[in-house]
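Input set for joint prediction.
Command: fold jointly, output tokens.
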Amino acid sequence: MELILEMLNFVFMRRAIMVGLLVSLCAALLGVSLVLKRYAMIGTGLSHVGFAAIVITGVVVDMIPPAWIMGFPPLARMIEFSPIILPMLVVVGAAFLLLRLSESSKIKGDSAVALISTSGLAIGVIVMGLTTGITLHICNVLFGSIFAMSAADMYLSIVLSIAVIALFVLFYKQIFAVTYDESFAKATGTKVELYKSMLSLLTAVTVVLGMRMMGALLIASLTLFPALSAMRLCKRFLFVVITAAIVAVVCFFAGMVISFAYNLPPGASVVGVNLVVFLLSSGVALIRRGGRA
Amino acid sequence: MALITCRDAAFAYDGKVVIEGLNFEVSQGDYLCIVGENGSGKTTLMKGLLGLMRPKSGAIEMGDGLKAIQIGYLPQQTSAQKDFPASVYEVVLSGRLNSRGIRPFYTREDRQVALENMDKLGIAPLRKKSFRELSGGQQQRVLLARALCATEKVLLLDEPVSGLDPIVTAELYQTIAALHREAGLTVIMISHDVRSGVEYASHMLHLQNRQIFFGSAAAYQESDAGRYFLRGGGPQWN
Ligand SMILES: Nc1ncnc2c1ncn2[C@@H]1O[C@H](COP(=O)(O)OP(=O)(O)OP(=O)(O)O)[C@@H](O)[C@H]1O
Ligand SMILES: [Mg+2]
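tokens >
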């Protein structure tokens, strides 16, 4: 308890926890749909594209002479927001590209994701290699850092999570129908493409917001683990959604406390807690079925 | 004016035509039974009628302001995942999605309709069960209840009795006939059960990668295709 209070004393910690809790919640809600639609890898693909975008943004920002910033104060503001806004535009673009690719079915969904995600990583690494003296720490980009959160992140994640939760509540029926049986939904007059685009868009935004804290390599797990754990425990879609949200929030908080107590990277700690919960819920599911695997 | 008009329509996968020469009409209150061998293009045509597939040539016209939201549909195979965590009630209720325009939650009426349809198909006791833990025939009835929830004008059924036991099969034909008669639904059903087809349907459409018969059920029994299929096919137990 004292540990938690001590942790909350730091401004950057409060910010990181705020952003993280909201992003985890959104990722878990979206993740249920993504996992059930066999579209779970999209998070990985998008985060790797985000990696490239962050590296390129970092390089471009580094190239701006300090004199310009002195002479034109709004530029400083723009630079503060740039590590979120630019990657967000790029990742949203990638999300729509992926959706198009998987619809045209010339390249199957999982290959399309693999294609985009490895290209993203490669481009990021090439840009890093080409520039020397870059101030970005590759380790932080890949595995995350809680010091990366700015006030801008906090405001954006609040707006985002309100949007995700509101859309989930308002369009719960549609999300269930589109997730459950796309062609039935389409045949009976649901605008399936619209809801799929909405899910892609929100996933892209969630990935970018969570990426700098959780790390480009780890953020996708926030969409996977809570949904998978919840699916082990629940038989109803509604309960799966609710359980996933609770699991995500609890795991995130526990992961942060552990990371603070033992001075571990936050992203990895959160994923670690999620893994433990997933194993526990798999165990519970196994016991419930009377040991039959 | 006809509800659905097919004008020389053809359907193809990747440029390869699988069904062509479709010329028929479905009017309000018809009961059309589509028959044909495996792979003859029945499901493909149904996807076309549902707007899930565009005709390669020709046209399918919807008359009388028929909209997708007035259609109920029972797929031959769902695109749903086998291990999807959903209760029977959730699945049936999802059929009501578009019946009341865009609203955040299901209304009391939606729930009422869902319960009635589950009663009709004898699955009300299963409502809290997980869909993935039902038998094939039980799943079929759940999906049929969902289709009934979705329909206002037209009910499209792709092999509704496959996997059902003889008693439920007979009951199901009765249920569909009653919906057709009393609720005035237009029914379009794909079936391998030609005998029941000519018994209940008003019209028959026989496909063999092209249209080889379309007309009234009585005329079908007198036609070459119908006589061959009714005798050669023999009684089919689903
Ligand atoms: N998704 C697809 N891609 C390519 N070809 C397809 C596809 N679906 C069906 N076909 C082909 O189209 C033809 C017609 O298939 P369809 O499913 O319409 O047959 P059907 O009459 O419904 O058969 P069944 O009685 O077995 O259900 C078949 O030769 C099949 O191989
Ligand atoms: Mg078929």
